[in-house]
């Protein structure tokens, strides 16, 4: 039987090689473009005939935008208006990539650390640039919370720097680990169904149990896909907020 | 114990850390629910804080997971 890790294999669809580097158009690239096309169709067709009283599709688009806008507004405040499109793009891409990955025979883009870390590194670098552009050298006071007793200062600075540097790691690994673990779990239970079903006799009847489990896990994975997209967008917002509104 | 056995042993020990982080995540949701049932009107405004607390607690479990992955595939 195929290994549960087989679904994460990257296969070239259209091989391209530029001066020794493998730049093939892979199934990962195909699913990323697919996600973009889906988002574009959803947004464009939904808002094609924008009306004052929205129809079903338009209100679906509007409610998602409103959700992200509300989240940014709550966490950053009026200064965050500029960053709504960025957070919205991030949220939509991760959401669509996660949910599309749940379709049988599809490929989950976000189950690759390379993809999630690229997003997390982008946010991390963006936070530093925005922080320094807005506050200059004063931004480094972020690493020393106000009201720290003098003897705690070196320890606090150390802890704050470590926690700041671990942000891109936790942000990317959280999404990657959740998607990978979920998909492996689904595959393992699907494997149980097949091997029990082929065992014959009473075991073929018992095979219904892992099937029921798999259906329940699918529902859970759908929830995880949406929640992880939300968590990623929310944490990106909170990290941006730390750079924009320096509290001290 | 061979080096390979020690590697798997360490990965298994690191996996325990994930379980301990699960306790932390469970506590966060438990206390949120406790507070939310006392004052349901204020619950929805604290949803963001809830997810943030969950994410921070889970981050430590992720470190344990990372150690397990590093032991299995990188060492």
Computed CA radius of gyration of chain B, to the nearest angstrom: 17 Å
What is the approximate shape of chain B?
elongated
Biggest protein-protein interface?
A: A-B, 14 and 11 residues
CATH class membership of chain B: Mainly Alpha
According to DSSP, the number of beta strands of chain B is: 0
Helicity level of chain A, as a percent range?
A: 55-70%
Structural class of chain A: mainly alpha
The name CATH uses for the topology of chain B is F1FO ATP Synthase
Bin the strand percentage of chain A. Answer: under 5%
Largest sheet of chain A: 2 strands, antiparallel
Give the number of helices of chain A: 7
Distance between the termini of chain B: 16 Å
The assigned structural class of chain B equals mainly alpha
Number of strands of chain A: 4
Largest sheet of chain B: none
Low-confidence stretches of chain A: none
Average per-residue pLDDT of chain B, rounded, comes to 88
Number of helices of chain B: 3
The rounded distance between the terminal residues' Cα atoms of chain A is 58 Å
GO cellular component, one term (chain A): plasma membrane
Function (chain A): Key component of the proton channel; it plays a direct role in the translocation of protons across the membrane.
Pfam families (chain A): ATP-synt_A (PF00119)
Protein name (chain A): ATP synthase subunit a
């Amino acid at each position: 039987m195929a290994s549960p890790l087989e679904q994460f294999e990257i296969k070239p669809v259209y091989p391209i090689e530029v001066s020794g580097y493998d730049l093939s158009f892979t199934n990962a690239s195909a699913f990323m473009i697919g996600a973009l096309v889906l988002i574009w169709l959803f947004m464009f067709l939904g808002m094609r005939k924008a009306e004052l009283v929205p129809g079903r599709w338009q209100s679906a688009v509007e409610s998602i935008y409103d959700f992200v806008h509300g989240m940014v507004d709550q966490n950053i405040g009026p200064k965050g208006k500029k960053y709504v499109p960025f957070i919205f793009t991030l949220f939509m891409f991760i959401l669509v990539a996660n949910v599309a990955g749940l379709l049988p025979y599809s490929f989950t883009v976000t189950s690759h650390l390379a993809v999630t870390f690229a997003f997390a590194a982008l946010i991390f670098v963006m936070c530093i640039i925005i922080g320094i552009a807005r506050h200059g050298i004063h931004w480094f006071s972020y690493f020393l919370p106000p009201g720290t007793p003098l003897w705690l200062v070196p320890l606090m600075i150390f802890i704050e720097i470590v926690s700041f540097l671990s942000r891109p790691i936790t942000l990317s690994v959280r999404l990657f680990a959740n998607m990978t673990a979920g998909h492996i779990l689904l595959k393992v239970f699907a494997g149980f169904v097949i091997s029990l079903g082929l065992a014959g006799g009473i075991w073929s009847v018992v095979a219904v149990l892992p099937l029921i489990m798999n259906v329940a896990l699918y529902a859970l994975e759908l929830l995880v896909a949406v929640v992880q997209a939300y968590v990623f967008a929310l944490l990106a917002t909170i990290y941006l907020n730390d750079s924009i509104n320096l509290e001290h | 114990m061979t080096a390979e056995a020690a590697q798997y042993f360490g990965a298994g020990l690191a996996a325990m850390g994930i379980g301990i982080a699960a306790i932390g995540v469970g506590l966060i949701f438990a206390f949120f629910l406790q507070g939310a049932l006392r004052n349901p009107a204020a619950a929805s405004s604290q949803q963001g804080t809830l997810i943030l607390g969950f994410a921070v607690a889970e981050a430590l479990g992720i470190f344990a997971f990372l150690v397990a992955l590093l032991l299995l595939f990188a060492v």
